[in-house]
């Protein structure tokens, strides 16, 4: 079997892709449970756990390029950018490439790149409400989040809350960070936050991008 066929069909089924595109068009966001293969979640989770245990993660900041700075009062996760170093990472990224093609074919978005990082939220960490697309730089078009935590307890906290863009205090979805769950939403319009977590919480946050180089200023990839 051609690997990419197995990957795209095992990670995001054709039915899931149709549902996802419809949801993005109709409401600007999609959440599905049991979407990501659990063996793959397990491998990715182990990889992140190993890096967290060996202090191999970077403290996350806000802003890009030279505007990047740490703000523990805004976000408390530690990250590692996916670099294709493991088979599990390559599988996840190939599935996202397949999704990028589907999104471009269905929505004519001109997405040309995908960037993603592992995120480890230690107990007590959160990420305040924000938009993923930075002001003046409409480069991130669609955000994705894959969750890696098996058996997330009911009182575990750490849900991602999506808000209504037209009524920013109105919650539209609350996403439990359970392994297999996959969320995606329009980066420029959907405010969201990560509620304080009570347990170590693992996810992969990623973004489909459009090239936003303007006036000869190179738009940094991170
Ligand atoms: O991990 C999540 O649920 C979302 C994280 C997030 O909003 C981000 O990294 O921009
Ligand atoms: Fe975000």
Describe the fold and architecture.
The chain is globular, with a radius of gyration of 17 Å. The chain is of the alpha+beta class. Helix 1 crosses helix 4 and helix 3 (38-53) crosses helix 4 (87-107). Strands 1-11-8-13-6-5-2 form a 7-stranded antiparallel beta sheet. Strands 7-12-9-10 form a 4-stranded antiparallel beta sheet, with no helix packed on it. The chain has 4 helices and 13 strands. It starts with a helix and ends in a 13-residue tail after the last strand. The chain has a single domain (3-209), classed as Jelly Rolls (Sandwich). It has helices at 3-11, 14-27, 38-53, 87-107; strands spanning 29-32, 58-59, 61-62, 69-70, 78-81, 113-121, 127-130, 140-147, 160-164, 167-175, 182-186, 192-194, 201-209. Residues 1-9 have low confidence and may be disordered. It binds 2-oxoglutaric acid and fe (ii) ion (FE2). 2-oxoglutaric acid is lined by residues 119, 127, 132, 145, 160, 192, 194, 203, 205.
Taken from the alpha-carbon principal axes, the silhouette is: globular
Q: Helix tally?
A: 4
So, CATH architecture? Sandwich
What is the averaged pLDDT score?
89
Oligomeric state as shown: single chain
Notable characteristics:
alpha+beta; disordered N terminus; 222 residues; iron; Jelly Rolls; binds 2-oxoglutaric acid; SM-20-related protein; peptidyl-proline dioxygenase activity; dioxygenase; ferrous iron binding
Briefly, what is this?
This protein has four helices and 13 strands. It is of the alpha+beta class and 222 residues long.
Topology:
Layout: H1 3-11, H2 14-27, E1 29-32, H3 38-53, E2 58-59, E3 61-62, E4 69-70, E5 78-81, H4 87-107, E6 113-121, E7 127-130, E8 140-147, E9 160-164, E10 167-175, E11 182-186, E12 192-194, E13 201-209
Antiparallel strand pairs: 1-11, 2-5, 3-4, 5-6, 6-13, 7-12, 8-11, 8-13, 9-10, 9-12
Helix pairs in contact: 1-4, 3-4
2-oxoglutaric acid (AKG) binds at residues 119, 127, 132, 145, 160, 192, 194, 203, 205.
């Amino acid at each position: 079997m051609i690997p990419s066929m197995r990957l795209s069909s095992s990670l995001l089924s054709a039915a899931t892709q149709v549902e996802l595109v419809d949801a993005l068009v109709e409401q600007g966001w999609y959440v599905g449970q049991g979407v990501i293969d659990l063996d793959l979640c397990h491998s990715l989770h182990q990889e992140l756990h190993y890096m967290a245990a060996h202090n191999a993660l970077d403290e996350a900041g806000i802003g890009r390029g030279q505007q990047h700075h740490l703000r523990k009062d805004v976000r408390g996760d530690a990250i590692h950018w996916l670099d294709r170093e493991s088979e599990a990472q390559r599988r996840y990224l190939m599935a996202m490439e397949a999704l990028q093609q589907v999104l471009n074919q269905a929505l004519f978005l001109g997405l040309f790149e995908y960037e993603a990082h592992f995120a480890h939220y230690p107990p007590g960490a959160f990420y305040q409400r924000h938009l993923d697309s930075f002001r003046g730089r409409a480069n991130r078009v669609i955000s994705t989040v894959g969750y890696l935590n098996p058996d997330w307890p009911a009182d575990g906290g750490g849900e991602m809350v999506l808000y209504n863009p037209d009524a920013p205090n109105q919650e539209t979805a609350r996403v439990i960070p359970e392994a297999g769950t996959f969320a995606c939403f329009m980066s420029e319009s959907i405010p969201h936050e990560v509620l304080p977590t009570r347990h170590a919480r693992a996810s992969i946050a990623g973004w489909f991008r459009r090239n936003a180089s303007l006036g000869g200023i190179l738009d940094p990839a991170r």
